[in-house]
Every structure is written in C-alpha cells, then in structure tokens.
Structures
1.
Amino acid sequence: MAKAFTNLMNDRAAAEREKAGASGSPDAGGEGQIVRRMKVETRKLNFFYGPSQALFDISVQIPEKSVTALIGPSGCGKSTFLRTLNRMNDIVEGARHTGEILLEGINIDGPEIDVVALRKRVGMVFQKSTPFPKSIFENVAFGPRLTGVSDRRELEEIVSTCLKRAALWEEVKNRLTDSAMALSGGQQQRLCIARALATNPDVLLMDEPASALDPASTSRIEDLIFELKENYTIIIVTHNMQQAARVSDMTAFFYQGHLVEMGQTQQLFTKPREKHTEDYITGRFG
Amino acid sequence: MVESLVNSPDTSETPPPVLKLHRQFSLARLRESIVEWGMFLCSSLSILVTAAILFVLLIETVIPFGGVKPFFGHVSLWEFFTETRWTPTFSDKHFGVLPLVCGTMLVALIGALVGLPLGILSAIYLSEYARPKTRSIIKPILEILSGMPTVVYGYFALIFVTPYIVQPLFHSFLGWEVDSTNALSAGIVMGIMIMPMVCSLSEDAIRAVPRSLREAGYALGSTKYDVSLKVVVPAALSGIVAAFLLAMARAIGETMLVAIAAGNNPKLTINPLKSIQTMTTFIVNTSKGDTPSGTIEYQSLYAVALCLFVITFTMNVISHAVMRRFREVYH
C-alpha cells in the first residue's frame, strides 16, 4: 500500500520534472553553473497552534543537494517551519496551516499524499538523540523493516551502508548487537542520522542536531553534514551562528514567525540586507 | 540537650554577635519536630504490622512458642511440598499443599490469559489512540470496575458466567462435564477483575515513554500502529511486565471471588472445568469453622498463609525491581 503511494508520488514527481524541463527550468543559469532544481518550496505558509499564529506568510525555495540553515532566536518558528516539511506537526493537537508546501513541485498536503511515504522521503534528526531501546542494528534496520525488508542479508547491507555514511561504522561494527543506549551522546546522534538515512530519504531535516554535543562530536556531525550534501538536501535548524556559517550554503533568518531574510550564507553573514539580521548575527539581540 | 540550644539573653557588656547562627529554641521548631515524629510513626505502622503478621505466621508454623509444637514440627517441608493430598480436617490427615497451590495458579493463570491482553490493549488504546474526550469517559468506568467489591465478581462468575457462558459452551456444545463451581469461570472473571489494574499501571508505563521517541518513530515513516507496537510498547515493556506481576500477585491473593465461584474441593487437577480449592479459599473456610486453636488443622491454616505470603511477597519484590530498572532507562 505504502509502496504504491511512493510509486505514485515518484511518478508524479517525474511528470512534474518533465513539465518543468519542457517549459524551461527557471534555475537554468549561465554556462558552467550547476543547475539546481528546487527541492522544497513553501508558498505563503501560515501556521497556527490553536488560536496563536506561529508562522506568517513564509515563502522559501530550497535547492536540492544543498545545506540550508535556519537561524533565529528561540521561539521564532524555525523548528515549527522545519516540522511542517515532513508534516510532523500533524501529530500535534490543534495544529493547522494555510498555504502550500511543495516537495519537487508536489503539494504535500494533497489528499492523495500518504504521509507515511512522505516521511520516508523526508527524514528527520532531532535535537535530543532518540535511539530506540533496541540494539544498534535494530535501530538502523527499523525503517527498512517498516517497508517490509525482512531478508537478513539485505538488512545487513543497508545497516552497514548507512552506518558508514553516518561515519559511525568503524566505532560500532564489532558490537552491532549491543544496546544503542550504551553509546555516547555523539555516537547516538550519528546513529539517529544513520537510522534516518536507512529509509532512503532525499531530504534530511535536522533540528539542532549538535546542540547537546561536545565540540568534538559537533565537528564530526558538521563534517558529516558536509559529506551528506553530495546526495541529500539538508535543512538544518541551528542556534549556533558559526555552525550555520560553516556548514550551510543558504541561510534563512526567522524572527517572531516571519522570514526576515534568506540568501547565500556568505552574503547573509557579510552583507545582510536587513538591519534585523545584522543585529542578530552580530549578537546585538537574541 | 535542649538547654544548650536555648540562647539565653545576654546581659553582659559584650556586644551582641552580628550574625546569630545558633539554633534557637522556639515553639514552632518544637511543633515541627512533633509533627515529623508523628508522621514517621504513622508511616512506620505499616512496617510494624507487616512484621507482626509475619511473626504470627512464623510462630504457628516454624518457631516453637509457649511449648506448642509448630506446624513444621509435625509435618516435614518435604511432605508439605510433595504430598498430593490435602485433607487436614479428615481423620486420615495429609498435608500436601500442592492441590491448593495448583488450584490457585490455575485460576491466576486463566485470569492472566484474560486480563493481560485486555488490560494491555486498552492501555495502548487509551494512551496512543483515544481522543482526550473518549479517554475521559473510559478511564472513570475502568476505575469503577477496579473499585467493585470482589463479592460482586464472585456472584457474577457463579450465577452468570458459569450457567450462561461456560456450561452452554463446554457442556451443551462439547459435552464435557462442568462443575457448578469451577476454575474457568472464576479465572475469566478474575481476568476482568485485574484488567483495570493491568491497564492503569501499563498506561503509566506507556505514557512515561518520552514523546521524542514517538516522534522519532513517526519521522521514520511509521504508522500509528507501528509506533505503538514497535516503539512504545517495547520501550515500556519492563513497566508492563511489572504491572502484570503486581496484578498476578493480586489474583493469587484474591479470596472472595474464588471462595464463591471456584469451589471447595482440594483435588490436584489441571482441568479448569472442575471444582478446585485455592489457598485463600482454604484459609477462609477453615478459619470460619470451629477448628480448635493449637491443633494441627488450625496450624495448617497458618502454613498455607505463610506459603501464600511468600509467593505474593516475592512477586511484589520482583515487580518493583523490574519497575526500578525501567525508570533508570529514561532518567
């Protein structure tokens, strides 16, 4: 069932792509420039928790295979925004939104969209590492098992690939059957990344993935993000300005539910267009 | 002691100390300590009572007291646990506790088979699926069920479950002989009785699973069913096991229900359609009869009670140990 939906979504995506190609992609830039399709897009997204509005008219375009950082003071709506992209807010009581959220041009709120299939394509890593109280192997195998992969060989293949991609393989390859709870904080977080990769997503949402980690682990996660952007579109929420500057290609600054400014990271940190952005990145408030 | 604490008014020339750190006697402090001691006594009462009960059980069974030979002075432990006949009030006396233990376990096991799935599934439903409104209706009803006097359950088993469910099914339909009091009816109703307890304790365990773990499950593309059964329940498993053990301890110690519905026939059998006798039934029936104190029949009552005490106590200890282990995982 879920598979059928995934296929449906893929077919639609392919159709969209062709259409976009036929009408001339808007991103088809000059010679030699890497042409990037827009992976994720929102149009006039308004979000509400019950009666209170958390996001106002957010319109962004996020190119594929890039890292986009969302920055802003606590409570500015950046996490809420991130969680709308895989419809995690669906499970929050009283949450609703207006506007469009598009994944490869397809509205993810559409009635034909299977939210379960969506979440397999848009993976998520949380602030607090959330390993399941199972073995390391079973943690990574969790997603594939959901889709019905039960062949031991195949699962082993997926687990080792994902652990390698998450730069954890060398540390755990001899103790895959140990409990994931026994790993250190940084290892747990990389395990969660591996687990998210195992559903074979193409977008990876990261909600302050390194905020609870020591500097060494943080830098490993950052290196990892840099490597992962080869294959994945990454959107990362961070409180850490240096981190945003280090890892991201694009940066979006949120303030009180509004998108104040979004642009190339280099430009945003050196020549911000908005006074607000400048005040925030120079530490004058927030 | 108190004297030294009292800060006597200083009449000499020396200037008063700037900072007084001495404890000063005051009525408020006295009241404080009286209240504290009073509360301590109240809470230690439960320990005292437990110790006293254990003491009484032991002097009738193990420790010789006042020149009376205790139960295990007459009957060896070997006989107590291997003899298969329990006939303390007959002229041909046999003291094998096995038929009683077996009867108790039979009822408790059937109770568990009924109560455990019912309780756990309703706990999962209440915490994961039910909307707050549904939950606010079901929860109080479950609490009423757990507050029902057990004598009501006993008669429910005797005058409803046996004649209208068990007998039609097994006697009329399958042609097996069904006693009017039997372990099966008592066990089924026992399951219904322990179900609210299993449900409420497992629900506590399930709700204690952090929300972040559920979100991680959903983020991987799990359905609600996947999250509930593959993430939440395994994470809460030790809490659920503990809940189950506590409920079993209660089922084993339950008296009224089995005294009414399970029968009074200490025969070693595993046929649930037969009339049996549990440890608690034996105790209640013997103690309300006119067994003279000091006789071995009278003492056998304490021996069975001690056996029961040890079983339920062990189960309680195990379940608390399991629960403690569970708490350590997330804190």
2.
Amino acid sequence: MTTQKETLHLIDRLAAEARTVRPLASPVLRTEIWLALSLPFVAMMVILYSPRADLLEKLSQTRFLIEEGAALATAIMAALAAFAQVVPGSNRRVIWLAALPAGLWLATLGIGCLADWMRAGAAGLRVTNDIGCLGKIALIGSLPALAMVWMLRRGAPLAPRGTLFLAILAAAALGNFGLRLFHSQDAGLMVLIWQAGSVLLLAAIAGLCGPRFLCWQHRKA
Amino acid sequence: MGKGNVRTFMPGAPPRREMRDFDTLMAAAQRGDGGAYKALLKQVASYLRGLVWVRAPYLTPEDVEDLVQDILISLHLARNTWDPARPFRPWLASIARNRMADHARQYGRRVVIDLQFTDIDETFCDEATNYHAEKVVNFLAVRDALNALPPAEKAAVRMLRLQQLTLSEAAEQSGTSIAALKVAVHRATKRLRGVLSDDDAKRDASPD
C-alpha cells in the first residue's frame, strides 16, 4: 500500500539525484542534426551502388524533381514531427506535418501511373517482382533509423507507436530518396507498390513495435 | 497542446504566482539545485494528488498515491525535455495525462482479469450460502497450489496476477523475457486449474 509518507521518501530520493541536466535541443535543431548525420550516409550508399546512367536527364524532368523533393520533404517533416512527439507539451498537431509532402509524393506517383496507362495502356501498368527495393530502402535507411531511435530515446515516450511510425517513415523516405538516384525503375505503379509501399510497410511495422523501443523504463535518470 | 485543453485538464489550477514558482524551481532544478528540486516535487505532488482525485474519483487513496509517484518518476526521467523558455505547466500536464492514461489502461486490464477469474457459477449463489469455513478451505487450497508451483511460475503469477504488473514491468523486474513470462504464467494457470479441479473432485467424491 502506497502512502504519502512513501511519496515523500521518493521525493527525497529523486531530489538526491538532482544534477545539472542539459535541456534537449529544439525539434528543429535535432532534425538538422539528424539530417547532417543521415544525408552523408545516403550519399555514400548512392555512390557505392553507382548513380543511374540517366541521372542528369532525370534531374531535368519536373515530375522526377517533384517526386524526389516530396520524398525528401516527407523525410524532413516526419523527422521533425517525431522529435516534437517526445517533447511533453508540444503541439500534437505536428504529426500532420508529414501528411502534406507524403500526399504530394503519392499524388505524383499516381499521376505517373496515369501517364503510363495513357502512354502504353495496360502494359504500362504491368507489375513485376521488385522486392529488392524493400531491402535497399531498409539498408539506406538503416543508419538514419538507428540515429533517429537513439535521439528519440533521450525524449519522453509519450506516444511510442506514433513516434516510431514517424521516425521510420522519415528514415525510409530518405532511403527511397537515395534509391531513386541509382535504381532505374520509373514505372509509376512499380514505384508506388515497391518503393512507396516498402516505406509505408517499414513505418507501419516500426509503429507496431514502438512500445518496445520507446518506453519509460528505457529512459535513464 | 492548446491552451483550452490545459485549462480543462487542470481543474483548480494553482494561482499564477505558484505557476511562476514552478517555472523558477524547475529551472533551478535543471541547474542541479537539489533543494529547489525537492520543493518543486513536493508542490507538484500535492497538486497532482488533487488533480488525480478529480480525474479518477474511482481510485483508492493508495492507487492515487501510486499514480502520483509514477508521474513524479516520469517527470524526473523526462526533466531534460523541459525547455526553460517554455511554461512548465503544459509540460507537466502532458506527462500527467500520459501517465494517467497508462494507469487507466492498466486499471482496465486489471478489471478484465478480475472478471475472467471470477467463477460465475459460484458467485451466482447467494452470499449467505457460502460458509466461512468453505472460504478458508478455498483460500488454503489456492495458497497451497501456489506454493507448489515451480519458482519461476510462482514468480510470474505473483507479478502478473497478484501485483498486476504489466508484462514489460515484470520482465524488467525479473530479468526474464516477456515470452518466458507468458509461457510461465500460462503453465502456472494450467497447473493451478488442474490442481484445484482435482481438489474439487476429491471433495465432491468424499462421503461428507
């Protein structure tokens, strides 16, 4: 049976542990730090896999630029939202920050599917096995994901599922951003299923595992 | 968090002067001032006590105190997440709300477990027909059956069923995995059911 006396003892114990603590940096600054850690890794992976031969040509295509920009913006906004999630008292609506670029990203891919269908009919919507995308996205997103989880564990695990979903969405979207720079797959439906699908699948799995990685017991006093 | 939410969540909010005190004390606590931290925790504890009473009037005083302690520990663990440039109260409210929600879920699970373990056939009878001696015999039978369990299974039942810890809390406390705990409690329940139904059968078969 817990009594007020025990609470006073607890307070004494906690007060005895008082020491200077460095307040957590703002979510914006933490997002910048995360990007500074992650982008060089993504660049390194693109170089290791060799950039696609038609990269210069692709970089002059508006649709490709919008798609890549939206994927990168999804990563940045999801990371910002994840970092805000672990700060008590922050605005909970930040979780919707990633929705706009993610919607734009999916819309671009949808337009790609439509364009393929108008250009080549049913043949333009042919789906073949490209499961390798999942592994490559996971590989490129691995270091950003690890860095993100490590940084998030310094915060308060208020909504572990949502936070980890956003975190892995950020890492996987960054992985997909890198993948598009060396993987020559431009068929709209293939990109939608195997790339955007992989990103969402990884984020959803991570979200389900959220409480295992982010819980009060993991926090160090 | 919207200002309106905070006001709804914190009924009987402390006067503005006290709110400033919270901010000042917490800022000092972050600089390592133990005295200020202790004063803050004491003020916060009494504030939370009232808050929990209002928000969860169904809790016993011991449960309220448990919850207050949980919130204080969480505040302590998350004290690096408070930005001195921002007000303390919404920060505290967010942690308190989170811990209260966790506690409510745990409380709900506890009620469900209690219901699952309630034998409808027995409780359906009139209380007056349950003799004191029978209750003592039942209690002794359960105690003996529990004592006969292997140590790991006994510990699992004690933590998960009697102390109502969550799986992760029990795993941390016992140093075993969640899967091992699940297996242990499942085996223990099966064993207990077997032992107790054997006892019942023997009692039913006896000439008395």
